[in-house]
Amino acid sequence: MNLSNHEDQIPLHGALRESERRFRALVEGALTGISIVQDDRVVYQNPEMERLLGPLPRSSKLAELDSIHPDDAAKVEAFHRRSLAGETGALDIDFRFFPSWPEAAGGEFKWVNCRTCPIHYKGRDALLVNMMDITQIRQMEHLLRIQDKMTSLGRVAAGIAHEIRNPLSGINIYLDTLEKRLAQTAVDPKTFKILDQLRSASSKIESVLKRVMDFARPSRPNLVVGSVNPPIREAVDLSAATLRRNGIDLDLRLAKNPPPCRLDRQMIEEVILNLITNAVDALKTISPPKTIRIASRTAGRMVRVVVADNGPGISSQRLQLIFDPFYTTKHGSTGIGLNLSRRIIADHGGTLTAGNRRGGGARFAIELPAVGEGNG
Predict the structure, then answer these.
(1) Which of 10, 11, 146, 331 is the most buried (most CB within 10 A)?
(2) How far from chain centre, in Å, is Cα 333?
(3) Running DSSP on this structure, what letter comes out for residue 278?
(4) Which whole-number Å values give the CA distances from 285 to 182, 289, 311, 322, in the listed order?
């Protein structure tokens, strides 16, 4: 009788093991992060949750408060308390946090959607946590908002630039006439110095107007197949004197044979030059040694170019706004350089992102689609 009962249980145990194996395979391969919290301890998490929040052992909290975006910290703390209190039904929240474990990409915050619900695990109360990375979705929403804003600002900027350019042309004509007439008489040399200063001011206004017009009606890139290294070197050559003058060392690490991309060399050079200029400005506030690193390498089907410095880095608040048009923290800047740079890279079918280096300093990464094979 006992033997018979034991034999009857063998198929049942096998079915349970098979069911558990299939369930674990489903959970382990899920695109959603899944974890179980019991007795204020994470007793299980799948690979996706490890990617999001780091390996075990770790805190049972959704994310450590010092890593949560300041604007979301209070609501995450309240959500965590409600979840542990065992409220019936599922609870949902969206929040931002900055991954802090070594394998994470430092400086770039993630958006996640989190749902918690009470369950029984191994016969006792537990909390099931589901977390989905929605960073790309939020970034796309942000880019669409920026695009709408740029369209509106572009129309306004073009109108203002046109209204300024007309009287400015008249001022330049009068300056030419005045200089010719003064040249025919005995005039104090200081007068010509004042004229030079007026011309310099006029040129600066012209330069700002050009950048505003570029923002309002950016030119389309003339894409040809080629390597990303030559425009990088050209930008470096143009920056050499500035780097020497500011006591900045350049660490140039270009791939020997990166796959070619479809690119406009002049526009890529302009983007790299802008990133170098921003890095130089950031390094003015620190003591030596000052270093800018520029590297190119193959990243899957993309070619990646990184411009990084060892300066003060970018605050979490600025990271959200740094590519917005007309946003700037620099005196005398128009605040459209990074916005134009991102638009140029987008026109190349690539991406431009900002973050911080693990050792400190800012890091800008360009990714362009490759069109052939190469050895990085």
Answers:
(1) 146
(2) 20
(3) H
(4) 44, 12, 8, 19
